Amino acid sequence: MRLALKMLLRDWRSGELNLLFACLLVAVATVTGISGFAERLSESLYQQSKDFLAGSLVITSSKPISTDLLNNAQSEGLRSALTTSMPSMAYANGKLQLTALKAVSQGYPLRGNLKISSAPFASSYQNVTNGPRQGEAWIASNMASLLDVSLGDGIEIGNVELVITAFLIDEPDRGFEMFSIGPRVMMHLDDIAAAGLIMAGSRVSYSAQFDGNK
């Protein structure tokens, strides 16, 4: 025991234990730092994934979302929003253009923001938390040049004519749609029935986003 204490005292005086202690402190600090960074990164990715989906949970179907499902979600205190997407034709100024139509309900998106501008291809934009109102249409910037339309002009989608009130720059869940058949036109969900677009053979995709408190 006395020999061990003498050896320990000798090593301490020689500085070897100081070096070992310093290395141990660096190792502990490094592991702690990496652990904290990984935790913050994981939380950040988790929050961004919600924005990427425009909600905490998304259900997509080729059939309309069940009303019972929506009612059950509401009874559990969850917020919900609905979208209906399909290829369609847009008409304005005697021109037809294939478009990726998206009809959204009030409250969409539940997470993230829509980015809109008052001019096509604008470098500045406005972040909004709701889609177009009934009777309105937001169109992609390249749709403006394809149909030769500007803000305030009318655009026909099926049986309804909508007023262009904004140019759509980005939407939080756009990356969730892997392929796009044409420029985006966004309208209110309440206008989709009057448009008369959904019929046998229509390539319609229905989605419901759910989320709790922000």
Number of strands: 10
Overall mean confidence score, pLDDT = 82
Shape estimate: elongated
**Count of DSSP-assigned helices:** 5
Instruction: Please identify the structural class as seen in this structure.
Output: alpha+beta
The largest sheet is: 6 strands, mixed, barrel
Secondary-structure element string: HHEHEEEEEHEEEHE
Gyration radius (Cα, Å) is: 28 Å
> Low-confidence parts, pLDDT < 50 over ≥5 residues?
none
Distance between the termini: 62 Å
List the helices and strands and how they pair.
Layout: H1 2-14, H2 16-53, E1 57-61, H3 67-75, E2 79-92, E3 95-104, E4 114-117, E5 126-128, E6 136-140, H4 141-147, E7 154-157, E8 160-170, E9 184-188, H5 192-195, E10 205-211
Parallel strand pairs: 3-9, 6-8
Antiparallel strand pairs: 1-10, 2-3, 2-7, 2-10, 4-5, 4-8, 6-9, 7-8
Describe the 3D structure.
- The chain is α+β, with helices and mostly antiparallel strands.
- 33% of the residues lie in helices and 32% in strands.
- It is built from five helices and ten strands.
- It has helices at residues 2-14, 16-53, 67-75, 141-147, 192-195, and strands at residues 57-61, 79-92, 95-104, 114-117, 126-128, 136-140, 154-157, 160-170, 184-188, 205-211.
- Strands 2-3-9-6-8-7 form a six-stranded mixed β-barrel.
- The longest helix is centred in the first third of the chain and has 38 residues, at 16-53.
- The chain is elongated, with a radius of gyration of 28 Å.
- It starts with a helix and ends with a strand.
- The model has no long low-confidence stretch (mean pLDDT 82).
